[in-house]
Recover the amino acids of this structure.
């Protein structure tokens, strides 16, 4: 039982380190592009 808990703890720590590393190193910025559409206003 102790081995399973130790393995689980190691997997949790490695997963957390991987998540933090991915958050810092990954480039997740979206691509931006300008979209313009003409608008007609009915002002009377």
């Amino acid at each position: 039982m102790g081995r399973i808990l130790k393995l689980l703890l190691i997997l949790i720590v490695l997963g957390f380190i991987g998540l933090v590393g991915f958050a810092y190193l990954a480039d997740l910025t979206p691509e931006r592009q300008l979209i313009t559409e003409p608008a007609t206003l009915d002002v009377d």
